[in-house]
Hints:
- The protein is mainly alpha-helical.
- Helix content is 80%, strand content 3%.
Amino acid sequence: xxxxxxxxxxxxxxxxxxxxxxxxxxxxxxxxxxxxxxxxxxxxxxxxxxxxxxxxxxxxxxxxxxxxxxxxxxxxxxxxxxxxxxxxxxxxxxxxxxxxxxxxxxxxxxxxxxxxxxxxxxxxxxxxxxxxxxxxxxxxxxxxxxxxxxxxxxxxxxxxxxxxxxxxxxxxxxxxxxxxxxxxxxxxxxxxxxxxxxxxxxxxxxxxxxxxxxxxxxxxxxxxxxxxxxxxxxxxxxxxxxxxxxxxxxxxx
Length: 253
């Protein structure tokens, strides 16, 4: 294909991806209320535990804040719903330029990264209520806690994204191993640094007083690191066997 044909193909793929995103946003606009109900459950739990009417509430501070939040949530939900469509458009555009081995590696990378990302988001969703309840416990009795809706949504959204991306990092280690950049033994030797990074990340992603959530998040990341190191060692062993089978006997002597 010529450069012009590539640009036409790219435009067509982008239009299809944009259309899928818009349709996903339309669907997301109608399901934002149930999603908001789920992520604000910790606020209701805290309000019930305090036993004070109006002590903990979600606050919309401007006239348009409710509509603005609905649009932001619609975009995030639409991006998630339409992900299979726009990801396929990207894949269909770049796949003809890849070799067979590159296609296999890319499929394997996505097959591991996507479930791990959603698993990380789920872990963040499970951790989030405990964080909200712990932070609300520092509000003095008789005082009211009003959470700005936009800020609260940003807090939940960023927490889920950060934890989701953190769960995908071990896949990048395996990808570096497959590319020949790092051996499995080199990855395993860095376990002390990995543990330190996991603890620091857990401390940054969770409130300072929430030690349980920090240790839980850091522990999961450490387990994923060792799993990536184990897979890399397995790949190194297979690679060594293939190279030994290819080399002539005199080269091994």
